[in-house]
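Sample entry copied in:
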Amino acid sequence: MGRDRMNCRSLTFSLVHACINRAKPLTAAITGMMAGGKLGNMLRTFTAWGAGNMTIAVILGAFGAHALKDRLSPEMLDVYKTGAHYQAIHALGLILVAILADRMDEPAKLVWCGRLFAAGIVLFSGSLYALSLTGIKLFGAITPLGGLAFIFGWTLLTVAALTKPAAESADQ
């Protein structure tokens, strides 16, 4: 388990490092996506949702690490940390969807990816936060619905990435 967390941390640090080193192209890509139109508004929304959820995940993670460590059992603290961890991963996923939607030929699929990631954050992470803070086991029954939303979102992203553009399909 410790090795998996270390790999996730290394991946997260690598992503952050790559974004910092490529800040100008990334900023240009996001600014380009923010152009008007329905798709531009949705991309702006996903970028805002991703950034906002990342902020919330950092705040809640810090709150859990400092304020809750003496108030929750170790098991419930792990549940809480899992919620923050998955919220952070899928907040980055929302930002990724916003960046890719402007570059791929399947924007409708990517819009649904973003919606599924957002729903997954609310259902998965939200239910884990509620379960750990209240001890009400019924919240645990909601968690798999959020997990399914995450799985469907990543699957749809895979399908969108593997779908050939119409012009490329016509050439073959």
